[in-house]
Amino acid sequence: MKTVQQIAEEIVGREGGFVNDPDDPGGATNYGVTIHTMRRLGLDLDRDGDIDVADVRQLSRAHAINIFTRHYFERPRISMLPQPLQASVFDMYVNAGSNAVKILQRLLGQFQEAVVVDGVLGTKTAMAVARAYQKAGDYLVDAYGIARRDYYLRLADRRPASRKYARTRRGGKGGWIKRAEEFISPRFHLTDKEFQKRVSAWA
Description:
Elements: H1 4-15, E1 29-30, E2 33-34, H2 35-41, H3 53-58, H4 61-74, H5 83-96, H6 99-108, H7 123-136, H8 138-158, H9 163-166, H10 175-181, H11 192-198
Antiparallel strand pairs: 1-2
């Protein structure tokens, strides 16, 4: 069983280093930590009185891991979930914030465990997840990963500027899709043909 630290290190590895893509609503990002997150946490690393791109560049890998552990695992109470589901929800929380929990809450309805979709992982949601996992086992983990993949695809449907994160220039699976499928059993991965059919309407 992987520790939270190990999972956080893997997330940082997926996120990579500094980027400042104008098409990314998150803005300047380093190791997956956005400038908006740094402003929210008051991380003025160069101590010049403001938090800007220079501060994002200064963020260390170790600091990013600490931020993810404290603010994206401990604070949202992801430890309340069954252990096999934690890594995927944690990874998605880093990538999409409280939408990670909303995806899970919506999914619960398919397992006859309807809860309020509010993005908050509280006792009722945790208990519903526990019951669903008891009934479905690892299939729930796969179902969540598939729901993540669908979330990314729908986001790219609505926002053409984001399609480059879901599909490569050569037409293959983009980073978003590969990221979701890391948490899905291979038998549920989209084949190249299935993926091409799914994104065929994109320009």
